[in-house]
Amino acid sequence: MSVEAGAALIFARHLAKTYQLGEQAVHALRDVSLDVMPGEFVAIMGPSGSGKSTLMNLIGALDTPTSGTLMIDGAEITHLGSDALAELRNRTIGFVFQQFNLLRRTTALENVKLPLLYSRHRPPDLAAAARARLEEVGLGDRIDHLPSQLSGGQQQRVAIARALVNSPRLILADEPTGALDTETSAEIMALLERLNAGGLTVIIVTHEPDIAAHARRLVRLRDGRIIEDIPVAQSAWLQAAAHGAEAR
Ligand code: ADP
Ligand code: MG
C-alpha cells in the first residue's frame, strides 16, 4: 500500500458500477478515481442520473463497486464481509439525508441515541452522549420534542446530531438542504462548515451552486465520469452558475 492510500480517508481508483437491467447494462459510474483526505469539504454536483448517489453509496460502504479499488479509512472494502462493512460504516461514517429520515414517533433525544445501540464502542451514558450532540447542533432545549414539533431546519439538525453521535471521521450528506428554504439551508451549511473547521471530513451532494460554494472542493460528474475536480474558488463554472442563480 502506498503512503498516499494509507493517509487518504477515501482512496478510489478506476471505480465502475454497472447495473444490469434485464438485457441492458446501465453504466452508473465509469473509471472514477478520487482521493479524499482527512479534513476536506467536498461538494459533488452533476445532472440527474450522472451517478452522484451511486458514488455516495460506494463511499458510504452501502454498496460495492463492479470493478476498481476502493479503500475507506485504510480498508479495501471489497475484502470485507457484510459484518465488517457494517462495523466500518458505524464507526467511520455519519449519514445525512434530504428528508432527514427521523423516526416520527420518537423524540429528538431517542433519535440521536439510536445509532449508539448498534455501536460496539458504547459510552457509559447513552442519553448524556446524545444530549451532548444535540447541544452541539444548538438543540439542547428541544431534546424531548418529536420531529413533528420541530421545523425542517431543526429536524435536519437532529439528523446531523444523530450522524455525529458515534464520532465518525466522515459525514456523507446527499442533498442535505434539498427540503429546506434558502435561509435555513444557509444555517445548515454554516453548521457543516463549523464541524468541518473542527476537523470533520464532509462530502455533500447538491444541485445548488450556492450550497456547493460552502465547500472547498468541487467534484462534477457527468454520465458516470468525473469531468471537473478543483478547489471551489477556482471553478469558473460554479461562479457562473451561482451568478445565474442569483440573477433569476
Ligand atoms: P444521480 O444520483 O446523479 O441522479 P444515480 O447514481 O442515482 O444518479 O444513478 C446513475 C445511473 O444509474 C442512472 O442512469 C440510474 O438510472 C442508474 N441506476 C441507479 N441505481 C440503479 C439500480 N439500482 N438499478 C439500475 N439502475 C440504477
Ligand atoms: Mg441521486
- Which CATH top level class fits? Alpha Beta
**What name is given to the CATH topology?**
Rossmann fold
Domain module tally:
1
Structural class: alpha/beta
Low-confidence stretches: none
Name the helicity range.
Answer: 25-40%
Radius of gyration, CA atoms, in whole angstroms: 18 Å
Task: Please report the number of helical segments.
Answer: 9
Task: State the distance separating the first and last CA atoms.
Answer: 49 Å
Question: Which descriptors apply to this entry?
Answer:
binds magnesium ion, alpha/beta, 248 residues, binds adenosine-5'-diphosphate, 9 helices, Rossmann fold
Structure write-up:
The protein has a six-stranded mixed sheet, with helices on both faces. Strands 2-1-4-5 form a four-stranded antiparallel sheet. The chain has 248 residues and is α/β, with parallel strands linked by helices. Strand 4 and strand 5 (75-76) form a beta hairpin. The radius of gyration is 18 Å and the shape is globular. The protein contains nine helices and ten strands. The chain has helices at 3-7, 52-59, 82-92, 108-117, 126-136, 152-164, 182-197, 209-212, 236-247; strands spanning 10-21, 24-36, 41-45, 67-72, 75-76, 93-97, 170-174, 201-205, 217-222, 225-231. The chain has one domain: P-loop containing nucleotide triphosphate hydrolases (Rossmann fold, 3-Layer(aba) Sandwich), CATH 3.40.50.300. The N and C termini lie far apart (49 Å). The longest helix is centred in the last third of the chain and has 16 residues, at 182-197. Bound molecules: adenosine-5'-diphosphate and magnesium ion (MG). Adenosine-5'-diphosphate binds at residues 19, 21, 26, 28, 46, 48-54.
